[in-house]
Amino acid sequence: MSFRKEPPHTHGNIAKSAVVLVNLGTPDAPTRRALRRYLKEFLSDRRVVEIPRAVWWFILTFIILPFRSGKSAAKYKLIWMREGSPLRVHTQKQAALLDTMLEERGHHAVKVAYAMRYGSPALPQVLDQLKAEGCDRIAILPAYPQYSGTTTGSIWDAVFAHYAQVRNVPELRLVKHYHDHDGYIDALRDSVLEYWENHGRGDKLVMSFHGVPKRTLLLGDPYHCECHKTARLLAERLRLGPTDYVVTFQSRFGRAEWLQPYTAGTVAQLAREGARRVDVLCPGFTSDCLETLEEINMEVRREFEAAGGQDYHYIPCLNETPAWIAGMAEIAEQHLIGWPTMMSPSQRDAEKRDADTGRERALQLGA
Question: What are the binding positions for Fe(2+) in this chain (predicted)?
Answer without folding.
Answer: 210, 291
